[in-house]
Amino acid sequence: MKKVQLLLLIFPLFSLVGISQGELDIQQKAFFRNEKSIGLMLNSTGYGLSFRYGERINFFNKRIFEGDISILKHPKEYKTTNPYFPGNRQFVFGKLNFPLTIRGGMGFQRIIFKKIDQGGIAIRYIFSGGPSFSLYKPIYYDVLYPLSLYESEVRSEKFNVSIHSRVDIYRQSSFLKGINEIKIVPGAYGKAGINFEYSKQDRVIHAIEIGVTFDAFLKKIPIMASEDNLWFFPALYVSYRFGRIMDKKTPLPENPEFNQELSPVSIGY
After folding, report:
1. Could you give all domains of the chain from N- to C-terminal order, each with its CATH number?
2. Cα separation values, 65 from 70, 108, 159, 209, 260, Å
């Protein structure tokens, strides 16, 4: 009687496991599993774009090489307009320079949970680091200078906190103005994140990644006309990544009958 009761308890558990697995994945798996992906990033200090190449080390691990480019913002940036000309281009009052951050480094990616079925999610963690550089160019503003009661002259100038007020600035000048005055500050970065890969196709990557980054430069980046410019920039980020799995050493056979024979066999990372 006890054996019958035990079987009655175990049978529903097997049913739940079968339901939770979702649709059986019968795709032919890539074995070597290098990968390339592009990421669209949004973080607490700006936004940007990243490229990543993952090279398989073993079943669980990949060595990754990456490059990022992102806009760097000061925490006190707020866009505004001249109240007398509200239809003009917005500008950040008091902003001296427009900075970009360029990173290039390497690191590792490790699987925490492997995807089992087509509706599953693979969870990986990544960490990386390397050199980074801040490139910044001066911002020019079209500043109003009264000539008479009814006329004003517009001059393109860098921001000067001692003489410029918000009502003096007509609008921000062309972005290309000052492009020949770019300066570079070297530094270093570190990154750690969790990656959730959810693509239903074995050779395609769709993933959401969240994590933290740290950029440290050799001096403060002069973004704003104030004393609270920073040299160290910690940030939270979220990224959507898309790309492909590469399997150069074990290409898929062209014979569909051969593929059908191998399809039930799942070869993972």
Report:
1. 29-137+178-262 (2.40.160.20)
2. 17, 9, 39, 16, 35
The partner residues of 137 in beta bridges, in order of sequence, read 98
Query: Which pLDDT tens digits describe the chain residue by residue (269 residues)?
Result: 444 443 344 344 334 334 344 454 444 454 557 999 999 999 998 999 999 999 999 888 999 999 999 999 998 888 888 888 888 888 999 999 999 999 999 999 999 998 877 678 999 999 999 999 999 999 999 999 988 878 889 999 999 988 898 888 998 999 999 999 999 999 999 999 999 999 988 789 999 999 999 999 999 999 999 889 999 999 999 999 999 988 765 444 444 443 443 344 333 33
Give the residue among 151, 120, 137 at the shortest CA–CA distance from 23. 120
In Å, how far are 110, 134, 171 from 62, measured between CA atoms?
Answer: 6, 28, 49
Q: 97 has which bridge partners?
A: 138
Residue 135 in tokens: 């490139």
> What is the 8-class DSSP label of residue 259?
H
| Distance between first and last Cα of the chain | 45
Instruction: Take residue 3 and report the two structure tokens written for it.
Output: 């054996």
**Can you tell me the distance from the alpha carbon of 203 to that of 267, in angstroms, rounded to the nearest whole number?**
13
Place of tokens 């492909």: 244
Classify residue 115 as exposed, middle or buried by CB count within 10 Å of its CB (0-12, 13-18, 19+): buried
- For residues 223 and 94, what is the distance between their CA atoms, to the nearest angstrom? 9
d(CA 86, CA 82): 6
Sign, CA dihedral 20-202-41-63, equals positive
Residue 159 and residue 96 in contact, taking contact as beta carbons nearer than 8 Å:
yes
Joined tokens for residue 8 = 């009655």
Beta bridge partners of 71: 100
